[in-house]
Design a protein that fits this description.
The protein is mainly alpha-helical and 155 residues long. The chain contains three helices and three strands. The structure holds zinc ion (2 copies).
Length: 155
């Protein structure tokens, strides 16, 4: 019976130059020094880019939201006030009903009567329409504020 082979001698620990001998100061090598500089430069640049990206994104979302409600807030578009429909309500083609959803008006419906052509529509129906184009859904008459119509822009 042979004795077991002796264990291999432990490998010597890697030699690291002490800080005082290293010309790269606290960095162990030139490569680590460059990597450190790169991190110091890249992190703020990435932070600034993320900052601008964030504000661009917020601005984009706000613009989209505003565009959706622009016409109702646009002073150049005179959205008529909502009124409650009654048989006495004067509007063009009232017996035909709302030109958007094609249902007849009933007493108490909230409607808007467009000033240019007197066509009337449900508030919910016409607001969705007016959010995208300032004209009558039935006859395409433009809906502009009286001030803008009185002083048309020079051609
Ligand atoms: Zn309607
Ligand atoms: Zn009309």
């Amino acid at each position: 019976m042979r004795p077991p082979p002796p264990p291999p001698p432990p490998s010597p620990p890697p030699v690291e130059p002490s800080l005082s001998e290293n010309k790269w100061g606290p960095y162990s090598s030139a490569r680590e020094f460059v990597a450190n500089i790169a991190i110091v430069l890249i992190v703020p640049i990435a932070a600034i880019l993320a900052f601008f990206f964030f504000f661009a994104l917020v601005g984009f979302l706000l613009r989209r939201l505003r565009r959706h409600h622009k016409l109702l807030k646009n002073p150049a578009v005179d959205v008529p006030p909502a009124i409650l429909f009654s048989p006495a309500t004067k509007m063009a083609g009232a017996d035909a009903g709302c030109g958007i959803c094609l249902s007849e008006f009933t007493d108490g419906d909230r409607v808007r009567v467009l000033p240019a052509c007197a066509h009337g529509f449900h508030v919910t129906c016409v607001d969705a329409w007016l959010a995208s184009r300032p004209s009558c859904p039935t006859c395409c008459a433009a809906i502009v504020a009286a001030a803008a119509a009185a002083n048309p822009p020079e051609p």
